[in-house]
Amino acid sequence: MVRTDMPGRTSQLLLWCLSLALSVALVRAGEAPPPVAAPKKIAQVVVIPVREEIGSPVLYILRRGLKEAIDQKADAVVLDMKTPGGALSVTFEIMEALARFHGKTITYVNTEAMSAGAFISATTEEIWFAPEGVIGAAAPVMSGGQDVEATMKMKVVSYLKARVRAISEGKGYRGQVISAMIDADYELKIGRKTIKPKGELLSLTATEASALYGQPPQPLLAAGIAKTLDDLLAQKYGEGGFTVKRLEITWSEQLAVWLNAISPILLGLGLLALFIEFKTPGFGVFGISGIVLLALVFLGGYVAGLSGHEPVLVFVVGLLFVVVEIIFFPGIAVLAVTGLVLMLGSLVWSMADLWPNEPITVAWSGDAFVRPLVNCTLGIAMALTAGLLLARFIPKGWFFQKLAVTGAGHSAAQLAGVAPETGAEAASLIGARGVVMSGLFPSGQIEIDGRRYSARVEVGSATPGTIVVVKKVSDFNLVVETTIP
Question: What is the pLDDT of residue 283?
Answer without folding.
Answer: 61
